[in-house]
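Service request form, structural biology core

Requester: graduate student, group of Dr. S.
Request type: structure prediction, single chain
Budget code: on file
Notes: please return the result as structure tokens.

Sequence provided:
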Amino acid sequence: MGPTRVAVGQLTSTASMAHNLRQCQLLIKKAVQAGAKALFLPEASDYIALTGEESANLVKPIEKSEFVHGLQVAANNHKLPIHVGIHEPVEADSTKVKNTVIWIDEQGDIEHRYQKIHLFDVNIKGGPILTESKWVEKGMAIEPPFETSFGKVGSTICFDLRFPEISLNLRRQGAQIITYPSAFTVPTGLAHWATLLRARAIETQCYVIAAAQVGRHNEKRVSYGHSMIIDPWGQVLAELGGNKHDGEVNEPEITTAEIDLDFMEKVRSEMPLQRRTDVYPEV
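Core staff response, request fulfilled:
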């Protein structure tokens, strides 16, 4: 298998799923024009609500979501697989939603799903106060990596980035690419985003693809941006920008890079990471 070009997309989702679908359709066209063989979109691409109550009112099952259906049609029309973060309802609790990521294959079929395990509860002095656990149901399982034409992909979402155990588990299960679709806040993004992404790539010797929300979504939420693709040596191969002006909705953008599994195998063979499980339990 030779190198494969993939695209990472960046947008400013709002509470309008119709608007967000149009933004994603624009990113799909850009990815096709760039020769990408897959497109990776951010966490919560379908919508970002002002409140938990608004989110619960907006959420729809996948089979009834015009946002998901629109992406399925586009994936099939362009023969472009799409990895995208969405919301799903919690049947047993109408006040909560699921924060998930799905893989839509080139036929438009949903072939993989992962529900966010680690939820973002934070109160940063002078910064954001967010309690995701109040309105999002936590996931309970690390999903095995799934096969694509360019390698085995392991899914995580945003705050999962801070917990290396999940990426190490995915690597042990055969992952060659690990994804972090995100909506990082500006203060935490400035402090930790690139450092954590590079660390996850280096310690797993995997490609890391991190599609990020960017800009002001509403009066309460601003996202950091800086979507990235990083190679197994920790080198940033592609990166988009961040906020342009506070209050401005940024133009949807993509950037691309090549996934080269031969290079990955070179890194792994030249610096094998063999954990001493006789000394400490494997995480």
